Amino acid sequence: MKNIHKLKVYFSDTDAAGIVYYPNFYKWMDQATHELVEKMYIDPRVLRLEHNIILPLLETGCKHKSPLLDGDIVEVHSQVEEIQNKVITVKHEFFRNNQLVASGYEVRAWTLNKDGKLKAVPVPDEACEAFGHPVHSV
After folding, report:
1. CATH of the domain at 100
2. Which of 41, 78, 103, 105 has its CA 20 to 30 A from that of 26?
3. How remote is the C-alpha of 105 from its chain's centroid?
4. pTM of the model
5. How far from the centroid of its chain's Cα atoms is residue 2's Cα?
6. Is the dihedral of CA 88, 93, 94, 95 positive or negative?
7. How many domains does the chain contain in total?
8. Cβ–Cβ < 8 Å for 102, 29
9. Residue 136 lies in a domain
10. End-to-end alpha-carbon separation of the chain, Å?
11. Distance CA 129, CA 114 (A)
12. β-pairing verdict for 99-109 and 111-114
């Protein structure tokens, strides 16, 4: 249950040294997660607008092995690595020419946004199944 998010590195993605400015990895992980959720389960906009569910970040990290440069074509391989009741962990791997250049993760809460109040709620069984994880035990 993996999604591949393809992107091209542009000059505007780089810093003064000509390599990708590190915050862009977090932007790309966010994009890849939204794409993964849409492909495997439901469009995140529908989740937010019709079900009042959002997926805010609790924790994130990224390890860099090799720099990305202007013009590089990158594949971000993403999958839900773990689901713990109200929290999902998404793993991301960045590849250039089949070479791993970075790896990262995001921990997100399955959160109900009702009347402006946020409350973490259990990930629904159908979402667990869609992401290839066992449903919660009763």
Report:
1. 3.10.129.10
2. 41
3. 7
4. 0.93
5. 11
6. negative
7. 1
8. no
9. no
10. 25
11. 25
12. unpaired
Q: Is residue 135 part of a domain?
A: no
In the numeric block, which tokens belong to residue 51? Answer: 């079900």
Under 8 Å between Cβ of 79 and 91: yes
Count how many residues are written for the chain: 138
Amino acid at 99: Q
Write out the two tokens for 37.
């959720």
Amino acid at 71: G
3-state secondary structure of 135: coil
Residue with tokens 């720099």: 67
Q: Whole-angstrom Cα distance, residue 21 to residue 85?
A: 34
* Predicted local distance difference test score (pLDDT) of residue 138: 46
Residue 13, token pair as written in the block:
């993605």
Range of the domain at 25: 3-130
pLDDT along the chain (138 residues), means of 10: 95 95 97 96 95 97 97 98 96 98 98 94 95 74
Furthest-apart CA atoms within the chain: distance in Å: 54
Q: Which amino acid is at 135?
A: V
**Matching residue, tokens 């990262």:** 104
Are 73 and 6 contacting, i.e. CB atoms less than 8 angstroms apart?
yes
d(CA 114, CA 137): 26
* Residue 20, both tokens: 């990708």
